[in-house]
């Protein structure tokens, strides 16, 4: 077997440039901390956030139906579990999904949720495709779009910064990342001129076939307004690009006066010229902020205006291995939470509210804290779970990193991990290049954990700056 | 977006030839049965088999840790759940796996299980790669091997019949299926001369790079003996082929005097000439017979003698989307069941025994029953969950199928579904071609369900034969 396929060459390059700090521990050395805190990815439960009780109770009953008789569990938990079990083959989560595309009842629930969310713009179960998280669904789409080499290679217009898993995913699937810069000074807004410029540049180098949007922005925390979204939709329509809208943090907008609008809704409110032509795929996931069920790995995409053959193909890609049942059930609970009057309604609502309050307060607190540090500059986040401050490093430190063959923000994160036991993400993982350094920090954590991280960051940061007076 | 990528052309052809009967219902017509019974795939829980209590109890507690206080659950269930939660990031199944390749504790448990199973031939955690079922892991491997077109296209020597999901998987990944026939008259044994002949034929058409083995055989129920396995290993060594060993039914051998030997064990007992050179990947899954947890989607592969870069690449393919946590925990329970003296030991052992007894008795009963039908001939199964009888159909029925543009075994299964509400698998899904017709039938079902299926099959079958006197 060949040792590495052609498409991994780029991955290797990427791995070399952005060595994950976790790989770089000096073996066996004594550390001045007891445990490692990882705030590099959006993994709230690892950071100590609690799961939503209703979700876990329903899933536990589905797994072990003897609990249906357990009176200490709320009635609506047991009723929901009973209903969900009824939607499973043989009444068991241990059977393959009833169809190879998933459980029809869950398709229906998701479509109803989207229809409600978008104020009546209708969603159809046959356009919903399940997968193990939004990365997996995106990977399916990219595999389908990938073709060509050099100037004919499929390219995707990609925001910089983008979600940190995206560059590697594009590379793996043989799709070229064609960057468009988000405007840091304007709260990471998307700029239409920049988009046109980026497309022009891309056209000389590959065949751009899609534009990727992360809204609410990962890792920027930006929330797009309707005007921007309409511009993007017109741009995609004019240029014949598929619109890939990652909307995983739709449930976690906390910025004053901001609200989440889905690309689907905006598209359908722009009239038939657009709503019947623009190819849109939007992604959502149970790893989102308020559910935070990253370990279960579940998500869906909604596919709009695609050739039916594409839709069928995406469904059939699941076909050889039907999607896992439990994440689908978790998804059903996410899109169909307890209603007012249900026994679990109060607890559920409190838990969701507590999560969003923590998130909002943490984001504000951390942003102010970071902006008080010399050489750090942080745009306030309006949504999502990340802060993404820029890092102005002394030239000597940049030089040192160059000599070590790593990016300076990677070196910074690596040292922080080695010295303080906190794992941050480096901006180069988010597609940031040159001397435009950033760090990425998930702020959905218990406030005490966040304080600890911030305190360690301050002392480390000041020490670094002090090393190069 | 292009409507279908190049590689799906074959899939379309395949889909047309082997139309899944479930797609062919006449809409809205009244049926002489109340519900559809699906025995086409190995999905015991859908057919009504119960899950193993210990597995479900442990997973339910992991999902809803308040159950740790539930005294009605056995102590070893709660202790195991506590231990497994300790191996999860943040002590929660809702966090991403601790490493992007999975939970280290589970890697270790699986390696220890393999070492025990193979009488001390050691297995190493770093060679274990998790995935959502054996199809997904195989898909990763095939993607890595796929290259070329026409005479340079990667080919895999594939048994006919093979697992019914395999032809489509090969096609999807752009790998050519190069058939070698199993010897039906000899209980579906593998024949070395046939293997050589198949390789010779394949070499003119593509670049064969691997041989796929299903042992215990899916759908044949054949169990390979050591001599055959040694021949296959020597063949792979001489011809420079990677050995892909699907060993999912290793826990369900019931034929008198038969036992499962892993390819790993046989390889390592053949001396260093082979054990240090032959590239072997073996697959296992929690969907196997005694666990039957198909809906959870979990499995692993063990990778032997591969270039470390391949191993790293296969692990990194998971990297952009860490594997789901719950299936890993189910896998841990599968490879590490209760020990004698543990509170759950008796129940666990009884449940496993009950499953295997049902399986063995059903297989024998169904085989005798099928052999009593005119125009049907069934080899006895020694393992696994399927029977795979051949079907001698009247020439008129074959002619009729030809006119309808489907294979005759597909037409047979389709009619059986429409008229009797039972979904069988057709041999053409297992790679069988020409007029060599077969049906596939999962016999791991409650005995009463099996009896019902058999009775319906008899009356349908006799009616079909009667239509063409």
UniProtKB/TrEMBL annotation, chains A, B:
<dbReference type="InterPro" id="IPR004839">
    <property type="entry name" value="Aminotransferase_I/II_large"/>
</dbReference>
<dbReference type="InterPro" id="IPR015422">
    <property type="entry name" value="PyrdxlP-dep_Trfase_small"/>
</dbReference>
<dbReference type="InterPro" id="IPR015421">
    <property type="entry name" value="PyrdxlP-dep_Trfase_major"/>
</dbReference>
<keyword id="KW-0663">Pyridoxal phosphate</keyword>
<feature type="domain" description="Aminotransferase class I/classII large">
    <location>
        <begin position="71"/>
        <end position="457"/>
    </location>
</feature>
<dbReference type="InterPro" id="IPR045088">
    <property type="entry name" value="ALAT1/2-like"/>
</dbReference>
<comment type="pathway">
    <text>Amino-acid degradation; L-alanine degradation via transaminase pathway; pyruvate from L-alanine: step 1/1.</text>
</comment>
<dbReference type="GO" id="GO:0030170">
    <property type="term" value="F:pyridoxal phosphate binding"/>
</dbReference>
<keyword id="KW-0808">Transferase</keyword>
<keyword id="KW-0032">Aminotransferase</keyword>
<dbReference type="InterPro" id="IPR015424">
    <property type="entry name" value="PyrdxlP-dep_Trfase"/>
</dbReference>
<dbReference type="Pfam" id="PF00155">
    <property type="entry name" value="Aminotran_1_2"/>
</dbReference>
<comment type="similarity">
    <text>Belongs to the class-I pyridoxal-phosphate-dependent aminotransferase family. Alanine aminotransferase subfamily.</text>
</comment>
<dbReference type="GO" id="GO:0004021">
    <property type="term" value="F:L-alanine:2-oxoglutarate aminotransferase activity"/>
</dbReference>
<dbReference type="GO" id="GO:0042853">
    <property type="term" value="P:L-alanine catabolic process"/>
</dbReference>
<comment type="subunit">
    <text>Homodimer.</text>
</comment>
<protein>
    <recommendedName>
        <fullName>alanine transaminase</fullName>
        <ecNumber>2.6.1.2</ecNumber>
    </recommendedName>
</protein>
């Amino acid at each position: 077997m060949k040792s590495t396929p052609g498409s991994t060459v780029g991955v290797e390059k990427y791995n070399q440039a952005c060595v994950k700090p976790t790989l770089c521990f000096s073996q066996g050395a004594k550390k001045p901390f007891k445990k490692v805190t990882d705030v590099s990815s959006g993994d709230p439960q690892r950071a100590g956030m609690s799961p939503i009780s209703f979700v876990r109770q329903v899933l536990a009953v589905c797994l072990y139906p003897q609990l249906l008789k357990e009176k200490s569990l709320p009635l609506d938990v047991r009723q929901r579990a009973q209903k969900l079990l009824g939607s499973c083959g043989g009444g068991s989560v241990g059977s393959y999904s009833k169809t190879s595309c998933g459980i029809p009842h869950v398709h229906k629930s998701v479509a109803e949720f989207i229809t409600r969310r978008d104020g009546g713009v209708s969603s159809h179960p046959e356009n919903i495709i399940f997968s193990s998280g939004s990365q997996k669904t995106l990977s399916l789409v990219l595999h389908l779009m990938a073709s060509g080499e050099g100037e004919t290679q499929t390219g995707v217009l990609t925001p910089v910064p983008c979600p940190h898993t995206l560059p590697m995913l594009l590379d793996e699937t043989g799709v070229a990342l064609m960057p468009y810069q988000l405007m840091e000074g304007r709260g990471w807004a998307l700029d239409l001129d920049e988009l046109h410029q980026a497309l022009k540049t891309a056209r000389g180098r590959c065949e751009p076939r899609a534009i990727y949007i992360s809204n609410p922005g990962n890792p920027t925390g930006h929330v797009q307004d309707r005007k921007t979204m309409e511009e993007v939709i017109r741009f995609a329509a004019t240029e014949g690009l598929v619109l890939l809208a990652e909307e995983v943090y739709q449930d976690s907008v906390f910025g004053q006066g901001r609200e989440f609008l889905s690309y689907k809704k905006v598209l359908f409110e722009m009239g038939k010229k657009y709503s019947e032509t623009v190819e849109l795929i939007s992604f959502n996931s149970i790893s989102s902020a308020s559910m935070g069920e990253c370990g279960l790995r579940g998500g869906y995409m909604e596919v709009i205006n695609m050739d039916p053959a594409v839709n069928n193909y995406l469904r059939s890609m699941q076909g050889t291995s039907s999607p896992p049942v439990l994440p689908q059930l978790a998804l059903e609970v996410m899109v169909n939470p307890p209603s007012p009057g249900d026994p679990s309604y109060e607890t559920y609502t409190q838990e969701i509210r507590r999560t969003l309050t923590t998130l909002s307060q943490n984001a504000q607190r951390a942003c102010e804290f970071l902006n008080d540090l010399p050489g750090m500059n942080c745009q306030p986040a309006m949504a999502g779970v990340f802060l993404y401050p820029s890092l102005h490093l002394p030239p000597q430190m940049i030089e040192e990193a160059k000599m070590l063959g790593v990016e300076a923000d990677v070196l910074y994160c690596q040292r922080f991990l080695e010295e303080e036991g906190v794992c941050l993400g480096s901006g180069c993982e988010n597609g940031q290049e040159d001397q435009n350094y950033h760090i990425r920090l998930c702020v959905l954590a218990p406030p005490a954990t966040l304080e600890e991280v911030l305190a360690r960051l301050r002392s480390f940061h000041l020490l670094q700056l002090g090393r190069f007076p």
